[in-house]
Amino acid sequence: MKLTEKETEILEILDENSRADLETIAKMAGIPVNEVQTII
């Protein structure tokens, strides 16, 4: 299974800060919160 660019970016953010909330991850990845929630 190949990850999308957005999925990879979210994984990198979580790897650096596993306690980040959805809003923080969304802001760092530059995508909407609901999209982050769907991906996770």
Automatic annotation (TrEMBL):
Domain of life of the native organism: Bacteria
Alphabetical list of Gene3D superfamilies matching this protein: Winged helix-like DNA-binding domain superfamily/Winged helix DNA-binding domain
UniProt name for this protein: Lrp/AsnC family transcriptional regulator
Organism name: Bacillus spizizenii (Bacillus subtilis subsp. spizizenii)
Species lineage: Bacteria, Bacillati, Bacillota, Bacilli, Bacillales
